[in-house]
Amino acid sequence: xxxxxxxxxxxxxxxxxxxxxxxxxxxxxxxxxxxxxxxxxxxxxxxxxxxxxxxxxxxxxxxxxxxxxxxxxxxxxxxxxxxxxxxxxxxxxxxxxxxxxxxxxxxxxxxxxxxxxxxxxxxxxxxxxxxxxxxxxxxxxxxxxxxxxxxxxxxxxxxxxxxxxxxxxxxxxxxxxxxxxxxxxxxxxxxxxxxxxxxxxxxxxxxxxxxxxxxxxxxxxxxxxx
Length: 226
Description:
Layout: E1 2-6, H1 16-30, H2 37-41, H3 48-56, H4 64-80, H5 92-100, E2 105-110, H6 115-125, E3 133-135, H7 147-156, E4 163-167, H8 170-179, E5 182-186, H9 193-198, E6 203-205, H10 211-219
Parallel strand pairs: 1-2, 1-4, 2-3, 4-5, 5-6
Helix pairs in contact: 1-4, 3-4
């Protein structure tokens, strides 16, 4: 079996608007200035506490629990009001359905989100039942630690050579390389081409239309089952 693991934010869904809203609430709660957009989005993919630590530095480490709690409370409030809806990127749903239909493919998720956030995403886009393994910040260290990928492989019995991590950040690429798997970068997310390449991307695609060809090259898919 092939194991294809997707990141969520910046890879499956365009969540920059809601992430920035949550970060703004966190910085306001701590009385600290919000960083510029590029800096703020550079931490996407990290677990929440680590993301805030990256942004504020160790001198404000004592404020991180307050900031993370404010972020979470704002997210939960918006979801209850039906406002926290991140759209899928073009082609993402079709790619998931197409790959899920193959007898030789297992799909997984590895994300800095909590399981609550993943469940909300699956609910919003009617994707339940498509992913056989879901790894989140609730049970694993933050990316780029390889634990999420290693857990996914252990749960599915997949071999490293037949496993690939698909993500939009250098954290995803470095995580995949640390786990000994293939790493496929996507160009529509939060880190640029140079960052993805520097952190270990084996290949970078520009749109989901290029996904099948890239998987074929990196995993040597049996073309008859494509």
